């Protein structure tokens, strides 16, 4: 007799199934919008608009070219358009250069630019997809207890909103950063291989320096060990930064520490005080910008920078409070990681949707530990995680163009902030009750 195949649903599957369901729900909304005549972005897709597909990979690689002329007749039309923009001087005119990148992504970009020059965008995109898929298959294989786990893990991760953004935007740097951090968080939670954790964190910092805030998680180890690992991460990160800067300068004399700093100033003008960083942002600063746009509240550049500074300082101070609670054993390791990741997300000026991939950790660890072992507040943490990992692009307001900015840019940071506050209040209330 043939064995009947039955998909067994376990508690660890539910968060990923919920993610799949809500992603499909938004996709259905987009499909119906198009069917009823709303063919324009953002009603047509919950992702980025299609004429910018894989732009973070292909346009970035083109950004290293200097007077390159190649035959693009065999390229897909969308990439031919990128090439036309490059040759028209659009990138230079709009100050879209790669000098603001830290040296490691800068070097990776040079490598990709060379490959693109002698092949085609289709090749580097295909290799990129293969790397992402193999990474997800590897994680699913590591976490699975049976084949049902593998299917749920693979489909759930691939269809999560941030991973779909990582793929469709082609943001290879976000991919490297996010999955390095996920691996780092697993090692921190399990308190295993601390020196590998040091290397993973240092690697992620080379792409996004603000990730250094996560180094506070080394305090899951004894005090002296924690300080040793934090110092080691700082030394490795800074040492690598200066060495890679020198290598980058040798390969490309236009790149230097001065050009990097100048590029950062340009980045601030375009993405932080300018408007380019508002779309798909999930930080507290991003929510304030979105609210000011929705309610037509003018905010000066000086005020924007002051708001950003206040949020950053508040975030750092909050991390010390969370560390104190952890050292006093008022929160456990899972909660400590959640608070730290949440504060890092909220206090970072630009935290794009694809960077939310790191929140997958909070559902993936459920395949290794039972929910009651992780936290008595597991449901609240996982609800918040699911909320962040699914698209909610149903309501839009005017920004640059009519109905262009999703209310999601307000909802995500507000829900994350409120969940963190509620969790903190619950823990505080329980502690006071226990003292009585």
What would you note in describing this structure?
- Helices cover 65% and strands 2% of the residues.
- The protein is mainly alpha-helical and 436 residues long.
- It has one domain (11-435).
- A two-stranded antiparallel ribbon has the order 1-2.
- Helix 5 (103-118) packs across helix 11 and helix 18 packs antiparallel against helix 19 (408-435).
- The protein is globular and about 70 Å long.
- The relative contact order is 0.11.
User: What's the N-to-C terminus distance?
Assistant: 63 Å
Largest sheet: 2 strands, antiparallel
| Biggest sheet, spatial arrangement of strands | 1-2
Average pLDDT over all residues: 91
Q: How many separate domains? A: 1
Q: What would you report as the Rg, rounded to the nearest angstrom?
A: 22 Å
Number of strands: 2
Task: Name the shape in a single word.
Answer: globular
Beta-strand content estimate: under 5%
Instruction: Catalogue the unreliable spans.
Output: none
Structural class: mainly alpha
Share of residues in helices:
55-70%
């Amino acid at each position: 007799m043939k064995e009947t195949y039955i998909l067994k649903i376990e508690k660890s599957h539910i968060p990923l199934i919920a993610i799949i369901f809500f992603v499909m729900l938004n996709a259905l909304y987009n499909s119906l919008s198009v069917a009823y005549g709303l063919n324009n972005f953002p009603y047509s897709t919950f992702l980025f608009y299609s004429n910018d597909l894989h732009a973070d990979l292909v346009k970035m690689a083109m950004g290293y070219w200097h007077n390159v002329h190649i035959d693009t007749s065999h390229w897909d039309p969308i990439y031919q358009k990128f090439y036309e923009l490059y040759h028209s001087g659009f990138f230079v005119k709009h100050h879209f250069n790669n000098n603001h990148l830290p040296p490691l992504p800068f070097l990776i970009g040079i490598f990709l630019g060379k490959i693109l020059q002698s092949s085609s965008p289709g090749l580097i995109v295909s290799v990129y997809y293969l790397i992402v898929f193999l990474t997800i298959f590897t994680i699913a294989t590591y976490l699975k207890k049976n084949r049902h786990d593998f299917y749920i893990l693979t489909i759930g991760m691939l269809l999560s909103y941030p991973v779909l953004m990582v793929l469709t935007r082609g943001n290879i740097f976000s991919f490297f950063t996010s999955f390095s951090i996920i691996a780092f968080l697993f090692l921190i939670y399990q308190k295993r291989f601390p020196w590998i954790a040091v290397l993973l964190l240092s690697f992620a910092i080379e792409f996004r320096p603000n990730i250094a805030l996560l180094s506070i998680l080394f305090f899951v180890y004894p005090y002296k060990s924690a300080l040793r690992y934090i110092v080691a991460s700082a030394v490795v990160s800074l040492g690598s930064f200066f060495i890679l800067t020198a290598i980058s300068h040798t390969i490309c004399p236009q790149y230097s520490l001065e050009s990097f700093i100048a590029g950062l100033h340009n980045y601030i003008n375009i993405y932080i005080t300018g408007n380019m960083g508002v779309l798909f942002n999930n930080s507290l600063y991003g929510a304030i910008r979105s609210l000011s746009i929705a309610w037509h509240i003018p905010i000066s550049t000086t005020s924007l920078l002051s708001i950003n500074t206040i949020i950053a300082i508040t975030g750092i101070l909050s991390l010390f409070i969370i560390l104190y609670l952890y050292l006093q054993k008022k929160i456990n390791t899972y909660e400590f990681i959640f608070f730290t990741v949440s504060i890092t997300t909220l206090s970072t000026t630009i935290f794009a949707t694809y960077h939310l991939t790191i929140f997958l950790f909070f559902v993936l660890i459920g395949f290794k530990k039972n929910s009651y072992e992780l936290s008595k507040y597991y449901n609240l943490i996982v609800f918040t995680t699911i909320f962040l990992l699914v698209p909610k692009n149903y309501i839009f307001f005017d920004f640059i163009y009519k109905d262009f900015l999703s209310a999601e840019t307000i909802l995500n940071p507000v829900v994350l902030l409120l969940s963190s506050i509620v969790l903190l209040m619950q823990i505080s209330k329980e502690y006071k009750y226990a003292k009585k």
